[in-house]
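Quality-control log, excerpt.
Job 1 of 2 completed; input and output follow.
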Amino acid sequence: MKKLRKFLFLPLLILLAFTLTACGKSSGNVYQKVKQSKQIIWGVRADTRLFGLTNVKTGQIEGFEIDLAHALTKQMLGKDAKAEFVTTTANTRIPLLKNGNVDAMLATMTITPERAKQVTFSKPYFPAGSSLLVPDKSKIKNVKDLNGKVVLAVKGTTAVDDVHKYAPKAKVLQYDDYGQAMSALKANQGVALTTDNGLLAGIAQENPGYKLVGGVYSNAPYGIAVNKGQTDMIDHINQALNELQQNGTYDRLIKKWFAGIPGFSLKEC
């Protein structure tokens, strides 16, 4: 009988060990892993113009964060190292990290105390803050004008809380992605779309007839995120960021993607 119990219990132990590994509980030292493989798997956006957007002609994701991921990978691991990408949304960024699907998250992720309880952030790599996108003929001038009105946002973004801080009487409708939110704005389901200024600049660029108003009403810089405990990884990311800023690569990438964009100031970078 004891042998039978042991025989039945062993597969359960194996299954448990496999489950923990699959769920990212035993990810080990991520930096040592990427150093050995010469490859970093980055979580990135594929739906966000200027930062990460799929080119329908080539099928490749293009944007500032994509270029920055390539530059960071080579700066950290050498010129022959490769950056691989897993696409994410605002809601799946932390789960992808916690499950071990990606090594680092570079996906318009605002540094917040709440998120810092679950992940570890790098130094800020992009200055951002919530702003408003409205039709050209809109009478909305700033965030306080949203009181008593419907404003559109994307689930999982800090802009949802920011609106409630500065316009507590506004009603916020949340969508799964920016494409849906922009379609709602065009359909007059809300008076404004709110999110980070850099994202709105990209949306405005591809949607004539819409503009940014009110400036930035919150301070919400972006940071690269890694799973808790990955000190080596975040230290090397910060070092690489410093080196890219010092050798001019960072400024070159910023100018490549954001120079001349209405509502965006290069002086903030």
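Job 2 of 2 completed; input and output follow.
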Amino acid sequence: MKKVSFAEFGGPEVLHLIDAEEPHPAPGEIRIAVRAAGVNPVDWRVREGQVLGAHPIELPSGVGLDASGVVDEVGEGVEGIEVGDRVFGEGSSTYAEFAVLSAWARMPEGLTFEEAAGYPSVVETALRVIREAGVRSGQTLLVSGASGGVGSAVLQIARDRGIKVIGTAGAANQDYLRSMGAVATTYGEGWVERVRELGRVDAALDLAGSGVIRELVELTGDARKVISIADLDAPRFGVHFSGVAGSVPEALAEAVGLISRGKLHIPVEKSYDLAEAAAAHIDSQAGHTRGRRVLVV
């Protein structure tokens, strides 16, 4: 089968499409014929060799956590899923023609494979950081870097829970944030004052790692009310860096419910062929994503 792999840490040029042996599921796992794979920032962070305790790897390594596809092998002890089912979920080395998933759910009606591949890690992360921030209905959450996949999920989940969201993004993404239910403002010079004019901030999320931790602490008045998924220096400011996933099966179940109720939709900004994984990483690292980027297999 074809698979994207890297044998050394580095830039996107270390990614190569290779011929590899097909994986097979262990007990409690399933294998899918991959139709699409989500491109997440953690993918290129791991490729660069960044120290992420939740994702230790050995070289050479495959790439990717999220995928959608059709079940073609079911591991021992797995119940409630059959060969031929359309699923989305999380596993390992999902930039490939076949991948093993450790967590999955049936795809909701009306969702394409490309769309479905963009949800698993994104929704788990969004649910986790909202919980860790301790923000409740009637309060205001500030989201820095709100237009990407996790931001898109946070905005919609928060709205469904009665939480007001102030989102920062580039000028081109202001209407997009508003369409997701956020009060939108641009980052850049004067952004702290612009946020203050919009009212009190009860908690804040750093989703972009753009060096704004100090300002987020200032706006909330409490480092414990700030969560980062993108700035490894966050603990220097007393801010929690959230890098360890919670229950992916529970997150997928909640995602299915939200999608089925019409409360969650994350658009696919751009799709790439499997051989274009390096280009997908370059674009992901450049930021300014509106929704998700996925590889089509």
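Post-run check on job 2. The first helix runs from residue 41 to 48.
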